[in-house]
Write a structure and sequence with these properties.
heterodimer; A: about 270 residues; 13 helices; B: about 280 residues; mainly alpha; about 70% helix; about 0% strand; disordered N terminus; ABC-2_transporter-like (chain B)
Chain lengths: ~270, ~280
């Protein structure tokens, strides 16, 4: 493997292995995901039924697919804004990261994405299984949507962590970033379509959502994977995701570079 | 020179401590926490704003559903606004005082809980008064706004009984939510690393409390109607206030029993807390 990629790959694998040791945490997360899933499903199914069994392209089966895929992705897509990087800025440990011969952004993201990908096993798959077994959900029957869907899901995960990283890089100026994190948490969840699918938004709100990277983190992967959007439109959504991937990575890179000049670590 | 208190030459007379004296240590801690939260001024401003947006977005998510289907589970948006207002206002106030009890898992992991044992004060009381989440004030403002608009938009046949019901509900709901925090803290002694488990009750419960409980399946009704009585904190009392028909499994007269459910949640919470404290073996320090 190319020498420049190897350290990041090692960090990714370390992330996967780190996450695989927290079994009880995964179980706790799964129970919470499932509880929220049942509450979400109850309210959304009732909404679809109140609208006459079909609402903005969703019937109960498609809604079930949305609910359980979104619950399954919740552990892997970063919609809470928390990163270890923020703590490292606050404590000054980030100075050590700058001294290393690899990009602090690349190193942070490799670890986070590794943990996120592993989380799909204990939290993602069981959530989807609960939905499929207990409620039943409409999923595509051909392999195409699954293939593109998995790629889209992976890109969505990376976009979420890249955006959370960029937001936390504000810590170079703010030091305490709790407020910004909470702001990210609530805005990202809302615009990514965590509690209400983006298709339910009125057109002005939809335009606002589409001007942000948030739907690319969760809504588009779910749309592609569940086959709700297919064919050329699905490829188009994937293209939009790749665009946001570049933008969010570049933003993180720029903020890191600017923050490095700003950084002042106290102590010896 | 002889120490008089040892020889008993002058009998030592303990001064009777009044409530002001006894609560002083707690007040000092709380005042310092309030100062520290405001010391990073920009962050505190963003914190207050973020917390407002959290409440606002949760309301928007409810609105979005009713924007697409005007009547869900027998309620329209004006009516659910009242449920949301009662639920969110009382939950925010309970979180203002009890929310940080949720940090117990962090103290357990770091072993810092043992410090609390060194002080001659009750553990739970210390934990509750160890912090205060001022940011929840702006979120409470969203709940209050929804409540005021909800009360004005609905046609309520006001009588002294209705006023009493509303006040009783707000107080009981806040006490019930505080009880879920205590319950969750008790469970955290057992699951430490899996502390996210309790989010299903604390935050899942908050989510359930502002839903139209009529749409729930039977298991959800048992879980969030009775075991963790979330439907009783806002939805069922609102049915009584508005004179709406009650769904199966949640009779409307229970809307008058909110204090009973608040007491139940605290009994359940304190039993869990006590067994958690007994289970705890120390941080190994």
């Amino acid at each position: 493997m190319c020498a420049t990629v190897r350290p990041y790959w090692r960090l990714f694998v370390a992330g996967v292995r780190q996450q695989s040791t927290y079994r009880l945490a995964a179980l706790g997360g799964l129970v919470t995901n499932a509880t929220f899933g049942f509450l979400k499903a109850a309210m959304l199914f009732a909404t679809v039924e109140a609208a006459g069994g079909e609402l903005r392209g969703y019937d109960v089966g498609a809604m079930s697919a949305y609910v359980w895929l979104s619950q399954g992705l919740l552990g892997s897509v970063n919609l809470n804004g928390r990163t270890d990087f923020a703590d490292r800025i606050k404590s000054g440990d980030v100075a050590v990261d700058f001294a290393r011969p690899i990009s602090p952004q690349g190193a942070a993201l490799a670890g986070e994405v590794g943990r996120a990908v592993f989380t799909l096993v204990p939290r993602g798959l069981p959530s989807v299984a609960i939905g499929a077994l207990v409620v039943g959900m409409t999923m595509p029957t051909s392999p195409g949507p699954y293939l593109l869907g998995l790629l889209s899901l992976l890109v969505g995960i990376v976009i979420s962590h890249a955006t959370a990283y960029a937001v936390n890089a504000c810590g170079f100026w703010l030091v305490e970033t709790r407020g910004v994190q909470v702001l990210y948490m609530v805005v990202s969840g809302f615009l990514a379509g965590l509690f209400v699918p983006v298709a339910f938004f009125p057109s002005w709100l939809l335009r606002i959502a589409e001007a942000t990277p948030f739907p690319s983190m969760m809504m588009y992967p779910i749309d592609i994977l569940s086959g709700r959007i297919h064919g050329p439109s699905a490829t188009g959504l994937f293209g939009i995701q790749l665009g946001w991937l570049l933008v969010t990575l570049a933003a993180g890179q720029l903020l890191t570079a600017a923050g490095r000049r700003r950084l002042e670590v106290q102590g010896g | 020179m002889v120490d008089s208190s040892r020889t008993g030459a002058t009998a030592y007379r303990p001064r009777r401590l009044g409530l002001a004296d006894r609560s002083r240590p707690y007040r000092v801690v709380l005042a310092s926490r309030m100062r520290s939260q405001r010391s990073y001024r920009l962050n505190f401003g963003i914190d207050l704003f973020s917390s407002f947006v959290v409440g606002f977005v949760e309301l928007a998510e409810v609105w979005l559903l009713f924007h697409n289907a005007p009547v869900i589970g027998g309620m329209d948006f004006r009516q659910i606004l009242l449920v949301f207002g009662i639920g969110d206002l009382s939950w925010s106030l309970a979180s203002l005082v009890f929310g940080h009890v949720d940090n117990l898992a962090t103290y357990l992991r770091l072993g810092t809980l043992d410090v609390f044992y060194l002080r001659p004060q009750p553990l739970l009381l210390q934990l509750v008064t160890s912090d205060i989440s001022l940011r929840r004030l702006t979120r409470a403002a969203v709940g209050l706004g929804a409540l005021v608009v909800g009360l004005r938009a609905n046609d309520i046949a006001w009588s002294p009984t209705h006023v009493a019901l509303l006040l009783m509900t707000l107080v009981s709901a806040a006490i019930t939510y505080a009880g879920t925090y205590v319950w969750a803290a008790g469970v955290q002694f057992f699951v430490v690393a899996g502390s996210e488990l309790t989010n299903s009750v604390v935050y899942g419960g908050r989510y359930a409390a502002t839903q139209v409980a009529a749409v729930w399946s039977a298991p959800l009704t048992v879980l969030f109607g009775y075991v963790f009585p979330m439907a009783m904190t806002a939805y069922v009392p609102t049915l009584v206030l508005l004179g709406l028909p009650a769904p199966a499994g949640l009779p409307a007269w229970l809307g008058w029993c909110t204090p009973v459910f608040a007491v139940w949640m605290w009994v359940f919470g304190l039993v869990m807390w006590r067994s958690g404290v007994r289970h705890y073996q120390g941080g190994g320090g």
